[in-house]
């Protein structure tokens, strides 16, 4: 498991906020280089990797999309040495006070998000948790130094270091969705030893947390026959225990709903049963909340699937995942790909 | 440039009904264009320049439409009920005036609210065109109107001029594009000046225009809010500090390579500028960025107070600097990092 | 003014001091369970102190006698700094690696969620998670997350933890330019200063150093320590909040309590003690004579070990002086190294010229 631990730790230690995915893209590029035939970058920054299949041309292709962007914050104003913030992606302001962050100014500066005392806030702000608009970042530096190093528009990412909690469990920020990038990497690794007739496009997409722009434009460019979004889903944890949540360590989930092609869901399910890979069915009545929402409606439309890995405390700096669930997801994807034949698309009918 | 701006802001053109504005723009630019097209949604697409080896296909976009109203019902006493076209806040318009496409004018009145501390919703408002019944009403259900307020110039002691009118959003950017087109000399780029429709109802015009043009790079020109009025939302942008380079808004993260290119160009040409982060609101740039296989996109923003009220205010020098910056950007080869 | 010595060499904060503070801040010592810090203190002071004793509550009482062999009997001055910090105690094992907990001491409930913690003396890693935002509603987010709904999570395969174990935020101490940042600056900075005073004592007084326990839960260690020491005067070295942030509407901040960068904060009055005015006068005069920056902590609110000490036996003239710190009692507090140095220097210099004559005046 140490190879996966190392990879995952590396992936969650690189910055890559939505719209600014450069640093993480570099790491993924290096990781995927030996595993793919071709690597290129889309016009808005997504990474596209191709592993060619063995079938005759024109070969059908499958697209695996794992978004590489992560949530974070951005400096909106500099005031008396303190920084005001806006969010990139969905952040619950109630977990922010006291969080360690890195301010990516003219150089990287350690900082902490702080909650001003009640006496310095308007009365309405004190009846409950303090809104993001009143929180500040303190870098410990003098106001003059802060003016020199930081500007509105500079990015702020969580500085929480990855934690290994017992065997097989990692906690940290950006596991949403670097854990899925690791799963796709696992899949690529397994495919090195296997034959597959279809082309495989692996996409580390951008801006899922803000606009789903990466998935939409990458699918438009690549025009695959099938697409799978790999993302994280809610792991069971205190206060999060209903049908929307899934146990840790019991495998990935398979999405079911309007955003998923029913035949694709069935094929994944049957394969997982056959291979005895544990999984759960995740009902998604509306928006799947993943790249699949955009993948499905690119150009003429694409049959899509969602495979998710249970994650506790999503969108906080202490997200938690079990490594064996990542491995299972990677393995399920690889097996699905090797089972694809040139007749597969013909079987994609409706209402039978 | 003031008379051009005044002509543009005084035209009536709510989302979906931009023809008056379109015709006005056409007369202003036909002498300068290489080619003029109107697409299926009504976007006016003006081509200028040929693609050189060191050039790109660049799409510029400023929207012709303004927010407005559409009549839903005429009551038995001749009062009109309506709903919004785009982001209309009731409290901005009580006692204000409207002008319909057919020239009819009217006044917006408000029902007496039982809870006086609540802000009125659009359902609590109505338009009075002086009719006494549906029969003698010069307006029909489905007719559209824009808000009406005369153009005004305010000068301060330092000689700075502030221009005030309805529809500065986004006729001021339309004026900037026209002015840039007129003053444009040589360029290595194939430029598309798109005067888009239906931005206020969801950047619809820009979506189809971007698909049609299929550019290498996109730049919207639109207004943005400021943080320089009493108890304003915290925002660094201020009137008079130069055109703003958008970093993000609530619908888009500007491509960092485009932002860097704009900042470098402004600094080299010594044009004042400010960085913009907007919470709430988006522009045509969002539609361009997500078009087809994706387009590196950004936005040049004009600081504007009281956006979506009938008295939107811009600084004339910011506008002139915006024209200068835009010309610098589109006249030279583009270096995207 | 007897024994004036403007050429006195004042203590300096150096790399070794910072390293010691780092060890102290990273150690886990929640009120009632101060073993880890006690161990570091003993290791530091045993070679230098004349006597060291640990009392029934766990306070360390150490003595460093006056060395200037002067004609008058030296004053016995108690200097106190508290070893304990605010934190958490595990209250029950819910299975699957989840543990219920309560706060110990004043921790703002709104600053707890989404943080890593370290549990017990082995510093077992865990996290206090939070419900994903996607599973909350807008109205829910208007309310603070209740401590009752939070759990410490050591992961599905983590070590078993016994109820009763203490936990603290897992923040690692770091230097940031002119500042230091860490958890428990309140009052490890006072502990570090007191260690320094034992190693380099002011020659003029008998120093009775008290490293106290359980300050955060009611000044309990200080109360018994003062009874045992029975000193002539007492100085408390603590940490006080600096609320010197911008006001939300840019108005002037008139309620800053103390400010970073303005030197040691002298207490005139807090909610537990009215400082002895003679001691206060003495410290001000000392600061002026040595040109040391100092400030007054705004009166009202809060309390230090002086609250218990000044009422011991028949009473003890007492004064508190604190290093200002932002965000005390949260995962990451910030203080300025200069303020720490100026505070230590002022205490050293003031004790070095403290004589019985100071107390012969009227209060």
Written overview of the protein:
The complex is a heterotrimer of chains A (352), B (337) and C (363). Chain A has helices at residues 2-13, 22-32, 143-149, 175-191, 213-222, 262-275, 292-295, 323-338; strands at residues 38-41, 47-51, 61-67, 72-79, 82-88, 100-104, 108-114, 136-138, 155-158, 163-164, 169-172, 199-205, 226-234, 253-256, 280-283, 304-311, 319-322. Chain A is α+β, with helices and mostly antiparallel strands and 352 residues long. Chain A has two domains: 2-70 and 173-347, Aminopeptidase (3-Layer(aba) Sandwich), CATH 3.40.630; 73-158, Peptidase M42, domain 2 (Elongation Factor Tu (Ef-tu), domain 3, Beta Barrel). The model of chain A has no long low-confidence stretch (mean pLDDT 95). Helix content of chain B is 24%, strand content 28%. Chain B is built from seven helices and 17 strands. Chain B is globular and about 65 Å long. Chain B has helices at 2-10, 19-29, 168-183, 204-213, 256-268, 284-289, 316-331, and strands at 35-38, 44-48, 57-63, 68-74, 79-85, 97-100, 105-110, 125-128, 144-148, 152-155, 161-165, 190-196, 217-224, 244-248, 274-277, 297-303, 312-315. The longest helix of chain B has 16 residues, at 168-183. In chain C, 23% of the residues lie in helices and 25% in strands. Chain C starts with 14 loop residues before the first helix and ends with a helix. The model of chain C has no long low-confidence stretch (mean pLDDT 93). Chain C has two domains: 15-85 and 183-360, Aminopeptidase, CATH 3.40.630.10; 87-169, Beta Barrel (Elongation Factor Tu (Ef-tu), domain 3), CATH 2.40.30.40. In chain C, strand 4 and strand 5 form a beta hairpin. By secondary structure, chain C is of the alpha+beta class. The chains are: A alpha+beta (352), B alpha+beta (337), C alpha+beta (363). At the A-C interface, strand 7 and strand 10 of A face strand 7 and strand 11 of C.
């Amino acid at each position: 498991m140490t190879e996966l631990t190392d990879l995952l730790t590396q992936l969650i230690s690189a910055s890559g906020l939505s719209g600014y995915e450069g640093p993480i893209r570099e790491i993924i590029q290096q990781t995927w280089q030996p595993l793919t035939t071709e690597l290129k970058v889309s016009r808005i920054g997504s990474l596209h990797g191709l592993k060619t299949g063995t079938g005759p041309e024109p070969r059908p292709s499958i697209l695996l999309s794992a978004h590489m962007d992560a949530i974070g914050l951005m400096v909106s104003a500099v005031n008396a040495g303190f920084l005001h913030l806006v969010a990139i992606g969905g952040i619950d302001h109630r977990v922010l006070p006291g969080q360690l962050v890195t301010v990516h100014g003219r150089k990287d500066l350690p900082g902490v998000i702080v909650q001003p005392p009640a006496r310095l806030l308007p009365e309405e702000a004190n009846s409950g948790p303090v809104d993001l608009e009143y929180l500040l970042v303190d870098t410990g530096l003098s106001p003059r130094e802060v003016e020199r190093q930081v500007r509105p528009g500079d990015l702020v990412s969580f500085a929480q270091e990855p934690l290994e909690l017992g065997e097989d469990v990692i906690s940290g920020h950006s596991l949403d969705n670097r854990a899925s990038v690791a799963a796709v990497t696992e899949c690529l690794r397994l495919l090195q030893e296997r034959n597959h007739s279809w082309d495989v496009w692996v996409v580390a997409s951008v801006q899922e947390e803000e606009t789903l722009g990466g998935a939409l434009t990458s699918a438009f460019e690549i025009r695959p026959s099938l697409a799978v979004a790999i993302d994280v889903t809610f792991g069971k944890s205190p206060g999060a225990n209903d049908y929307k949540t899934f146990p840790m360590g019991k495998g990935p989930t398979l999405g079911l709903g309007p955003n998923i092609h029913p035949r694709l869901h069935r094929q994944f399910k049957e394969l997982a049963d056959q291979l005895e890979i544990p999984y759960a069915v995740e009902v998604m009545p509306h928006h799947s909340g993943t790249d699949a929402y955009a993948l499905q409606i690119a150009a003429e439309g694409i049959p899509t699937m969602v495979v998710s890995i249970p994650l506790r405390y999503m969108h906080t700096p202490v997200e938690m995942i079990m490594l064996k669930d990542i491995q299972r997801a990677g393995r399920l994807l690889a097996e699905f790909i090797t089972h694809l034949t040139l007749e597969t698309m013909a079987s994609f009918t409706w209402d039978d | 440039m003031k008379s051009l701006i005044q002509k543009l802001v005084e035209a009536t053109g709510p989302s979906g009904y931009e023809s008056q504005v379109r015709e006005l723009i056409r007369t202003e630019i036909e002498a300068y264009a290489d080619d003029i097209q109107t697409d299926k949604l009504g976007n006016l697409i003006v081509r200028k320049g040929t693609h050189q080896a060191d050039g790109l296909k660049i799409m510029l976009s400023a929207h012709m439409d303004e927010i407005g109203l559409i009549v839903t019902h005429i009551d038995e006493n001749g009062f009109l009920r309506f709903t919004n076209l785009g982001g209309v806040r009731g409290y901005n318009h009580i006692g204000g005036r409207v002008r319909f496409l057919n020239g009819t004018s009217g006044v917006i009145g408000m029902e007496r609210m039982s809870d006086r501390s609540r802000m009125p919703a659009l359902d609590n408002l109505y338009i009075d065109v002086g009719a006494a019944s549906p029969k003698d009403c010069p307006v029909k259900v489905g007719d559209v109107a824009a808000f009406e307020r005369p153009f005004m110039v305010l000068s301060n002691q330092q000689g700075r001029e502030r221009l005030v009118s309805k529809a500065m959003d986004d006729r001021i950017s339309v004026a900037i594009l026209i002015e840039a087109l007129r003053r444009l000399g040589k360029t290595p780029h194939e430029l598309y000046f798109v005067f888009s429709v239906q931005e206020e109802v969801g950047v619809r015009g820009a979506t189809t225009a971007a698909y049609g043009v299929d550019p290498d790079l996109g730049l919207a020109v639109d207004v943005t809010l400021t943080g320089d009025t009493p108890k304003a939302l915290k925002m660094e942008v201020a009137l008079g500090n130069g055109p703003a380079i958008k970093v993000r808004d609530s619908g888009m993260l500007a491509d960092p390579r485009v932002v860097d290119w704009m900042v470098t160009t402004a600094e080299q040409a010594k044009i004042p500028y400010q960085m913009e982060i907007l919470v709430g609101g988006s522009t045509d740039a969002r539609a361009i960025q997500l078009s087809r296989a994706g387009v590196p996109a950004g936005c040049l923003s004009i600081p504007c107070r009281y956006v979506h009220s009938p008295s939107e205010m811009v600084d004339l020098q910011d506008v002139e600097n915006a024209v200068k910056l835009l010309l610098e950007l589109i006249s030279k080869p583009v270096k995207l990092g | 003014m007897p024994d004036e010595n403007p050429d006195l060499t004042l203590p300096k904060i150096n790399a070794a001091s910072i390293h010691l503070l780092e060890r102290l801040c990273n150690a886990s010592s929640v009120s009632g369970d101060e073993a880890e810090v006690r161990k570091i203190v003993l290791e530091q002071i045993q070679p230098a102190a004349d006597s060291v004793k640990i009392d029934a509550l766990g306070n360390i009482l150490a003595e460093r006698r006056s060395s200037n062999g002067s004609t008058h009997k030296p004053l016995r001055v108690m200097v106190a700094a508290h070893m304990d910090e605010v934190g958490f105690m595990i209250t029950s094992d819910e299975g699957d690696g989840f543990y219920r907990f309560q706060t110990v001491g004043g921790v703002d409930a709104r600053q707890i969620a989404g943080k890593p913690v370290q549990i017990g003396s082995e510093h077992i890693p865990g996290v206090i998670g939070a419900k994903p935002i996607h599973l909350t509603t807008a109205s829910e987010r208007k309310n603070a997350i209740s401590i009752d709904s939070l759990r410490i999570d050591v992961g599905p395969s983590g070590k078993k933890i016994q109820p009763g174990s203490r936990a603290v935020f897992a923040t690692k101490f770091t230097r940031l330019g002119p500042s230091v940042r860490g958890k428990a600056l309140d009052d490890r900075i006072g502990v570090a200063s007191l260690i320094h005073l034992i190693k380099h004592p002011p020659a003029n007084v008998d120093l009775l150093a008290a490293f106290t326990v359980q300050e955060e839960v009611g000044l309990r260690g200080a109360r018994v320590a003062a009874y045992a020491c029975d000193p002539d005067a007492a100085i408390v070295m603590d940490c006080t909040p600096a609320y010197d942030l911008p006001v939300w509407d840019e108005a002037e901040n008139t309620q800053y309590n103390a400010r970073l960068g303005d030197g040691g904060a002298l207490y005139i009055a807090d909610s537990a003690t009215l400082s002895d005015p003679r001691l206060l006068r003495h410290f001000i005069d000392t600061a002026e004579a040595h040109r040391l920056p100092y400030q007054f902590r705004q009166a009202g609110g809060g309390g230090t070990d002086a609250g218990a000490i000044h009422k011991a036996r028949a009473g003890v003239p007492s004064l508190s002086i604190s290093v200002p710190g932002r965000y005390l009692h949260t995962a990451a507090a910030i203080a300025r190294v200069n303020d720490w140095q100026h505070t230590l220097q002022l205490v050293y210099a003031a004790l070095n010229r403290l004589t019985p004559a100071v107390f012969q005046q009227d209060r």
